[in-house]
Amino acid sequence: MKKIITGILSMLLIFMVGCSNNKVTYEEKEIRLITPDGLPSIAISKAMENNKTIKHITINYDVQKTSDLLVSELMKGEAELAIIPSNLALQAYKKGLDYKIVGTIGWGSLYLVSENNINDLSELKGKEIYNTGKGLTPDIIFKEILKNNNISEEEVNFSYVGAASELAPLVATGKAEYAVVPEPVLSTVMSKNPNIKIILNLNEEWAKFNDVKEGYPQSTLVIKEEFFNEIKDSGVYEELINSFKESEEFVVNNPQETATICEDLGITVNKDVINESMKNSNLRFTDISNCMEEYNVYFSTIDTESKGENNEYKPLFVEKQ
Questions:
Q1: Which residues touch 143 (CB under 8 Å, ≥6 apart)?
Q2: Any idea where the SsuA/THI5-like domain is (predicted)?
Q3: Contact 179, 113 (CB under 8 A)
C-alpha cells in the first residue's frame, strides 16, 4: 500500500511540475507605432490617450508631421506598428521589411476641390493641380482616376506640398485653383472660403470604376511579422485591434472631445470644423479579412512591376487563426 501511495504522489508531482512548465509567461516589452499627422492619428487619438499599455506591451506612439518623415521612418523597418498610405504597405513588402497588413484605418477621404465649376474632368487638361505626397496614395488615386477618364499625366500640371496642412492656405486664398484635399483640411478650407466646392469624391469614383464596395483603402495599419507572431496567442493582438476600433467609433461620435484630446497629443486638428470634417472622413476600421478584394484591386492597379498578371497579394495580409 505504501508503495502504491508513493507512486501516486510521484505521478502527481510530475503532473504538477509539467503543468507549471507549460505556463506561458510574457516578457515586458516596449514597441513603437508611427502614424502620419492628420486623419489617421485623429482616428486613433483615443487609443493613444488610453491604451499606452496593453497587458505586457507598452506602446510608444510617434506622430510624423510630413510624408517624407513617415516614409523614412517606415523604411528603417524598426517600428513594430505603422499606419501608412496604403501603397507603402506594398512597397515595404517588396523591400523585405516583413510588415503584414492588419486592415484599413480609413477609406478614401480625398476630394478634388475648386472655386470653379466643371462639367467634365476633361476640363482639367492644362490646369495646375495641387496634391500631397508625390507617389503616395493621394497622388496615385487621382492619377488613376484621370487615366480612367482618358486624361494622361502629361496633360495636367502637378504641384506637390509635403503635408496636407500646407494645402489649406493655398486653396483658401485661391493660389491653388484646383487641389486634391483630404479631410479634415477640406472642412477647414471650406469654412474659410465659402466659394470652394467639391468637384469630385475620389472614393466614390474609384468604387464605381473598380466595382468594389468600400472604395480604396487610404490608410493601412501594418504590423511587423515577428511582433505579430509574438503577440497573436497572448490576447494582445485582439485588444490592440479592439482599441483602434473603439477609438474610431469614439472619434466619429465625439468630435469635440476628440479635438481636445488631439491638441493635448500634438495632433493637428481644427476644433472649429471637426464636427463637419467627420461627415466626410470615412473613418471605419475594417479588418483585412473583410476587405481583401478592395486591397487586391488597389494593389493590382498600382503594382506597375507586375501589371497585367494575376497577382496574389495574400502573403501581405495578416492571417489570424
A1: 153
A2: 72-257
A3: yes
Rounded CA-CA distance 54/121 in Å is 48
Check if the beta carbon of residue 129 is closer than 8 Å to that of residue 159: yes
Beta bridge partners of 31: 59
What residues form DSSP beta bridges with 131?
160
Contact 148, 116 (CB under 8 A): no
Q: Cite the beta strand spans of the chain per DSSP E.
A: 29-36, 53-54, 57-64, 81-85, 99-107, 110-114, 128-132, 157-161, 178-182, 197-201, 217-224, 283-287
- pLDDT tens-digit map of 95-141: 999 999 999 999 999 999 999 999 999 999 999 999 987 888 889 89
Chain centre to alpha carbon of residue 8: 58
The answer on pLDDT for 308 being more than 90 is: no
Q: Which long-range contacts (CB under 8 A, 24 or more apart) does 299-303 make?
A: 299/90, 301/144, 301/210, 302/87, 302/90, 302/140, 302/144, 303/90
| Predicted TM-score of the model (pTM) | 0.84
Q: What are the tens digits of pLDDT across the range 192-223?
A: 999 999 999 999 999 999 999 999 999 999 99
The C-alpha cell 469630385 sits at: 200
Domains, the chain, ordered by start: 29-108+216-316 (3.40.190.10), 114-210 (3.40.190.10)
Nearest CA among 102, 81, 85, 82 for reference residue 317? 102
User: Residue 247 — very low, low, confident or very high, per pLDDT cuts 50/70/90?
Assistant: very high
The three grid cell numbers given for residue 306, joined into one nine-digit string:
507586375
Supply the pLDDT for residue 204.
Answer: 96
Q: Give the amino acid at 88.
A: L
What local confidence, expressed as pLDDT, does residue 137 receive? 82
